[in-house]
Structures are given as C-alpha cells and as structure tokens.
Amino acid sequence: MSRLRRMAAPLVLAVGGGLFAAAPAAEAAPAACDPTSTPYTYVVTYDPGTRASAVDKELAAKCGTKVAYYAEIGVAIASSRNADFQQKIGVYRAYSGGKDVASQGATASARSLGAVRTLEDTRSVAAAGDLSAQQWDMKAIHAPEANKIYQGSRAVTVGVLDSGIEATHPALKAAVDPAASAGCVTGAPDLSPASWAPTTSDHGTHVAGTIAGKDPAAGFTGIAPGVRLASVKVVNDSGYIFPESAVCGFVWAARHGFAVTNNSYYIDPGLFYCPKQPGDAAAFEAVRRAVRFSTQRGVLNVAAAGNDNLDTTKPESDPNRPHPVDSSCGILPKAIDGVVNVSSVGYAGTKSSFSNYGQIDVTAPGGDFVQTPPAGEGPACPLSTVAGGQYGSKCGTSMASPHAAGVAALLASRFRGIPPQLLAGLLEGEADVVQCAATETACTGPAKNNTYYGHGLVNALDAVR
Asked: In principle, which of 124, 207, 248, 329 could form an S-S bond with 402, CB 3.0–4.6 Å?
C-alpha cells in the first residue's frame, strides 16, 4: 500500500433515526510554493512498487519535483526550493544531505571534508620508468603471481562508484566500458561521457588502476586487468557523496549486471546515520534498499572501513555533525548487511594508524605513513593511476577496498554467476590469517575473524588456483 495519505471517509451522523452524511469541512488552500530559494535534492521513501503517477502527485502537492524514481525499491529523488519540504513529506521519509551541509555552515562543511578526505590526496607522483618494483601492495597479496595464471574475464564488470575514471589513461583505456558507465551525482543516471569523467578529483582513477589497470610500458599492473570497469560517478565537484548519488549508483549496478562494486567513501555529511532519527531514517532506509536490491541482482558490494581510527561498532559521537549516536547508527554504505567491509594495513602488514576497525570482513593494503618500505620498494602509500596519465601514491582505506574488490573480481571471473553471498565467503575463506598482535590491545577476536583484520589479508593467488 502506498504511503500516500488516503482521503478520510465522510462523517456519518444519526439524526432522528436516519443517517445523513455530514458536509466535509472546508480545507484551507495550500500555501504557494517557494519559486526563488535555493533548491535542494532529497531522497524520499515510498512503499516499493508505488506508481510513478502517485509519486508525481504527492511531490507536486508538497512543492517538490521528481528527479528520478526507482520503483523497485520505492525511493524517489526529488528537488524542492521549499524550506519545509521535508516536513511536508514527513521527517522520517525525506532527507537532503545538501541542505544539511548548508545548514551547518562553512566551518562544519569543511570539517566533514577535512583530514579524513585530505589523507587520500596524492602524496607523490612517480618518475618515468619501470614501476613494478614499487608495487609492494600487489606483492603483499600475491597479485603478480596471480596475473601469470589468470587476469580475469571480460564478462565481469566492476563498478567504481567514485569521482570518475580517466578513461584515456594508458593503464585504463582498455578496461573502462563507456556503455556501462554513468554519472549519478544528481541522483538520476546520466550516460554522457562528461557526466562520469573526473573533474576535481582523481580518487576514482587511483581506485580503478588498483582493480584492473595495466600498462606494460610503465611496468604497472593491477589485480584483475582482464575485467571491465564501469565509471559510476557519485562524488560531486565539492567532494561530497550524498544519499541520492549512492542510491542511483547501486541501482545502476543492479540493472546493468555488475559482479562487484567498489565503494571507497562514506555518505555525506555523515559520519554516522541513525535509522531511528528524523531525516537519518530516510537516508538509511533509501541506501539500505538500494544495496539490498543490488545484492539481490547478483552484485557484491565492497566498501572501505573509513579513516578515523575508531571502533565503528561503538560510536560515541559524530565528528561531522551534532546529533546523538548509539550502536544502531552506522557509516553508510558499509553498515548495510551484505557489504564487505575492508580495513587497511601498511607495508609491515599491520593495521594502518588511521584505519577504522570493529566489524571488519577482510583487510588489504592501504598504506601507512609510519610503515615505510625499504628504498626501491615504493612509497608508503600504494602506487596507482592518477590524473594526466601519470602514477601516484595515495593512502587510506579507500586504497585498501579496491584491492579486495580486485580479488573478488578474479573470483567472480572463475565462478561466473556465483551469488554475492558465496562470493564474499570465498573472498574471506581465501584470505591469509592476520592475528591480533600483543601490542594491539583494541584488537579482539579469534585469529580468523578479529576486529582489526576480519578474516585476514586478501590473497589474489589463492583466488585463481
């Protein structure tokens, strides 16, 4: 049944033994919609299967316009200039990340995009020459040995939900599939190449190279260079990933048969979304439905654990915005059931100083400034593709996640059509155990499933043999 309010039945009164229908009370004329204020984009939840015409009718009546509607999951993306649009729809049914950011002011907005995102800036650009010796991260997961056996199938597509991929990069031009790519920043898919190309960030380009890059001239090879990549742009030019963009990305992946997606981000303005709070409830539910829909359609979603060095299962506060948090709150999309949560290790193989922990499925190389490789083995942060056809290093769980996604792509290539739950099980089962060290007092749990490393370090070689 639609969440749209049904008309109340007319009141019937008994008078002198007869029944008479009372005249309905006159309704106040609706207030005029605001035609001049800044428009903001909202996610709005409906019962799955609600007709588009019913959605259009409610949005129009409450001063909104439809940007997109995903009937399979009952989520609309709407735009409105009205400051009270969320209240008109219902505070547990509608949410705008953009309006939330604007209401916090410049200081809070800068904080939400601050040190955690800056960590993942390019740290160094590699000089020309053979880069193979500098890819310590690939050696750590036995990717070079795996590449000699199997490089993945062109029938497998990995969606990079990120800031866009530089499709002309020498290591990526053979992998990126324009037909499977889309811009999702507005919440509605845009197929034009400009919509999914990077503009202000090469974050997605770096992620893509780790998964499937290959440039023999530079001596650079990713984990699964035989698979296809889809650029699904969810990061806007200000660096934000709002709920509507993520919803669009996951539904796009589901509708286009991706085997794996990589999600090296958290949904802004974050950090935690709480399903019992106004606004948050709509965002959490919209993303949950989109993730579940993609999982049901055969997609394994892999996500970065985050760079706050905190136990995400025991949140005490939200560093990005003021609201109460508890154990029911989570970082999106990684808090959604079925998403593979990836922590980061540095060159020494221990948890990166910045990596979040708690509910972890696997770990992978993301670098660490305090774990420096010996001379000649590359920078402390993993080397991959960056803007302008170059190669550079970035640190973060954002760099760890695509290592896991790349190994998952190899497994998906070997076992075509395998359900995502079984694919995740294989990824975890093939991982190399990483035990909690005696000095890692916050690390708890058994060797094969602990709060720092989950089931262990992903292993590309085991995935192909």
From this structure: 207
Report the C-alpha gap between 273 and 335 in whole angstroms. Answer: 9
Give the dihedral of Cα atoms 382, 386, 390, 392; nearest 10 deg.
Answer: -30
Give the model's pLDDT for residue 26.
44
Confidence of residue 13 (pLDDT cuts 50, 70, 90): very low
The sheet carrying 124-125 orders its strands as 124-125, 390-393, 383-386
Q: How many angstroms separate the CA atoms of 12 and 69, rounded?
A: 39
- Name which of 430, 428, 416 is nearest 461 in CA terms: 430
Tell me the C-alpha distance between 219 and 339, whole Å.
33
Structure-token pair, residue 89: 């729809």
- CB-based contact 209:170 (threshold 8 Å): no
Indicate the SS3 state at residue 344: strand
Those residues whose C-beta lies under 8 Å from the C-beta of residue 114, and which sit 6 or more positions away, are none
∠ CA 67-68-74, nearest 5°, is: 130
Is there a contact between 251 and 293 (Cβ–Cβ < 8 Å)?
yes
- The crossing angle, in degrees rounded to 10, of helices 243-255 and 280-296 is 10
Domain 12-95 falls under CATH 3.30.70: yes
- Asked if 377 contacts 408 with a C-beta cutoff of 8 angstroms, the reply is no
List every span in the chain annotated with CATH 3.40.50.200: 125-464
Where in the chain is CATH 3.30.70? 12-95
Task: Give the CATH class of 125-464.
Answer: alpha beta
Distance, CA of 43 to CA of 447 (rounded, Å)? 41
Mean pLDDT to the nearest integer, 292-321: 95
Active-site residue set? 162, 203, 398
User: Cβ distance 162 to 267 under 8 Å?
Assistant: no
Report, as an integer, the average pLDDT of 383-403.
Answer: 97
Please provide the distance, in angstroms rounded to a whole number, between the alpha carbons at the two ends of the chain.
50
pLDDT tens digit sequence for 83-97: 999 999 999 999 999
Please give the radius of gyration of the chain, using alpha carbons only, rounded to the nearest integer.
24
- Residue 129 is given by DSSP the state S
- To which residue do tokens 């799955």 refer? 48
